[in-house]
Hints:
Layout: E1 3-6, H1 16-31, E2 35-38, H2 51-62, E3 68-69, H3 77-89, E4 93-96, H4 100-106, E5 110-111, E6 114-115, E7 133-136, H5 138-145, E8 149-152, E9 156-159, E10 169-171, H6 179-189, E11 194-198, H7 204-215, E12 221-225, E13 228-229, H8 245-250, H9 255-263, E14 272-273
Helix pairs in contact: 6-7
Bound molecules: glutamic acid.
Amino acid sequence: MIVTRFAPSPNGSLHLGHAYSAICAHDLAREEGGQFLLRIEDIDGTRSRPELADEFREDLKWLGLDWDEVPAQSRRLETYQAAAQQLKSDGLLYPCSCTRAEIEAASTMRGAEGPIYPGTCRGGKADLTKPHCWRLDLERALAKTGLLEWYDVYRGVQQAQPQLLGDVIIMRKEEPASYHLAATLDDAADGVTLVTRGSDLFAATHIHRLLQALLDLPVPRWHHHGLLMDESGKKLAKRRGSPSLADRRKSGEDGALLAQQLRLQRLPVGISLQNP
Ligand code: GLU
């Protein structure tokens, strides 16, 4: 059975781009009699606003979607810790005490998520008296897994290229897990068979595929859909003034009609859909 999910982070209200993403995941599941899951990704304790989860549920209902909800990330911390512990025992993680500014200054390559970590703390060089995160030793990880592939519905078979992101953070300084670790473990635990999300997270999948191999997790397929863009060609964002779904809902707009328009790609003036 197909299982898809919508996994919003409660650090800002949802906007049209989220609605499009949720509708894609919902419809892909429903077309085949499958299951559509809602997972609140509230791992980021400093930015999460718990009250937004209720707003999200209201937004999805307003759009005419129905779902099964799985536990939020804040309730799964032990699972993340156990997996990180396994990676540590396998010698695949190392502590890193570099600050963002130090990494910016030392990095010579920009990757899909910003500067590629230059490896300063690799080989036990972290200052453990300072706050530190734990990073994946990519070279060792790749030596263990060999070449990997994954399947994207639009782009077909992909050769996993985690080098595009480098030695990513697995356990953050202030949190027990990074997005990469938490989302990968959650999708496996939730039985997700088709990971549906925006193409802005395409590169992250290279790392997720690697983590699946390292942690012996099932491998789903991926559907990275196109993003809704504003007049200036930038991804919709609340901070650039895209109205939130909650504002639209409260102004009396018909949510089911909006969802229908999004399905037909009849987009509001000034908004366009970028190819995935
Ligand atoms: N929580 C992420 C976000 O709100 C989505 C992660 C995912 O779909 O894998 O951008």
